Amino acid sequence: MKICPLEISRGLFLTIKRTVQMFNNSKFLLFLLLGISLIGCKSSQQWEGQGPIQIVPTESKPIYIQAKKTFDVGSGIYLSNEFEGARLNDAILVNDTLIQVFISPENEPINPSPWYAFKIWSGEEKAIRLKFTYSENGFHRYYPKISKDGQTFSNFDSSSYFPDTIELQNGATRAQSAEVRLNISPDTLWIAGQDLVGTKHVDVWKQELLRHSFVSKTKIGKSTQGRDLEVLKIGESDDSRMVMAISMQHPPEIPGFLALKGFVETICGDTRLARKFREKYNTYVMPMMNPDGVANGHWRHNAGGIDTNRDWVNLNQPETKALTDFMKRKEAESGGEFFFAADFHATWEDIFYTMNEELEGNSPGLVPKIIKASSRKIKGYHPNIRPGEGNQRGVTSSSYFFFEHGAESMTFEVGDNTPRELIRKKGELTAKFLMKFLLKNKSA
Ligand SMILES: [Zn+2]
Question: Cα separations (Å) of 29 from 164, 228, 268?
Answer without folding.
Answer: 62, 35, 40
